[in-house]
Specification:
The protein has seven helices and 13 strands. It is an alpha/beta fold. Strand 7 and strand 8 form a beta hairpin. It has a domain of about 160 residues: Rossmann fold (3-Layer(aba) Sandwich), CATH 3.40.50.300. The strands form three sheets. It has a six-stranded mixed beta sheet with strand order 9-10-11-6-12-13, with helices on both faces. A five-stranded antiparallel beta sheet has the order 1-8-7-4-5, with helices on one face. It binds adenosine-5'-diphosphate and magnesium ion. Magnesium ion binds next to helix 1.
Length: about 300
């Protein structure tokens, strides 16, 4: 267990880390608002009516991945978007990350519109995306240095050690990515993402390339770190059981083109959840059946 005592905690959470960040007029921000007669509390991330289309060579009509897609993520929430392969999950996540751009709409994080990548939104990719020429330590250090440029070499090293320890990678700190198993690579990716204390973590099918036994262990580690740090998580996945085990809320996305959110499920199964015992909870199969039936209808 560890506590947040470093000076950055006093800085406003919404402080831009780099790049231009457009501030929207007050009325357009993600503050409390009335929706259908009820007041909803401020969302930390708002996806507002985003549309994305690709113009494919040789085709007159653009391919519309989604149109006017909206979504709100609450602070400290673990929200998952679940849908078939190809429905647009990575496209959505990449737009939130600022890696891709929407054709219209807004992404608002802590009341500010985001338009390019920033260390306030750390992505954990399916293919790990570590720098191959750097050691595990070097990969995490690169992110920590970018986040805390004023820190001394020793401060950075201590910080990196702490996060490698949290994911059980201390013994592999000097290894390069190609010397690691998939599980160890993903642990390095998770350590890197947590080490810069982003406002939100964006997970793109982070366990898809990890064997089933290791996957369970890393999922448990991720949940523990999520609970300890209070970071918000946005995950996209096509794995039903994984979504139920990990999430507070699941958005079901229809297959594309023009994918939409078709259903929203609050996973009201108490935590801590264990993969062995969760299947005995009466809500588990209700939720699972609802999702499976949605996926079968639309698939
Ligand atoms: N750069 C691109 N150019 C053209 N089409 C793309 C591009 N990226 C994604 N697509 C298409 O957009 C749709 C959604 O892709 P993606 O977001 O990767 O789906 P998912 O992550 O849900 O599997 C797919 O039909 C895919 O072929
Ligand atoms: Mg994808």
């Amino acid at each position: 267990m560890w506590t947040r005592t470093e000076p950055e905690d006093q800085a406003p959470a919404a402080a831009p880390l780099f790049g231009p960040v457009g501030v929207l007029p007050q009325d357009d921000r993600g503050g409390s608002r009335r929706q259908g007669g009820t007041t909803v509390s401020k969302a930390m991330l708002e996806v507002e009516k985003i549309s994305k289309h690709f113009t494919l060579s040789g085709q007159k009509e653009p391919f519309c991945v989604f149109r006017d897609l909206s979504l709100q993520v609450r602070e400290k929430e673990y929200l998952s978007v679940l849908g078939h392969s190809g429905c647009g999950k990575s496209t959505l996540l990449n737009i939130i990350a600022g890696i891709d751009t929407a054709n219209s709409g807004h992404i608002i994080l802590n009341g500010r519109e985001v338009q390019e990548p920033g260390l306030d939104r750390m992505v954990v990719f399916q293919n790990f995306a570590l720098m191959p020429w750097l050691t595990v330590f070097g990969n995490v250090r690169l992110a920590v240095r970018a986040r805390y440029p004023e820190w001394s070499k020793q401060q950075v090293a201590d910080w990196v050690d702490k996060y490698l320890d949290m994911v059980g990678l201390s013994g592999a700190a000097n290894k390069r990515p190609w010397e690691l198993s998939g599980g160890m690579r993903q642990r390095a990716g998770i350590a890197r993402a947590f080490s810069v204390k982003p406002s939100i973590m964006l997970l793109d099918e982070p366990f898809a390339q990890i064997d089933a036994l290791t996957r369970g262990v890393i999922q448990d580690e991720l949940v523990r770190m999520w609970e300890e740090t209070g970071i918000t998580i946005f995950m996209v996945t096509h794995d039903v059981d994984e979504a139920i085990l990990l999430s507070d809320r699941i958005m079901l996305m229809s297959p594309g083109p023009q994918a939409k959110f078709m259903d929203e499920i609050e996973v009201d199964i108490p935590r801590p959840r264990k993969r062995i015992s969760i299947i005995e909870h009466p809500r588990f199969y209700e939720i699972r059946n609802r999702i499976i039936s949605f996926l079968s209808q639309k698939g």
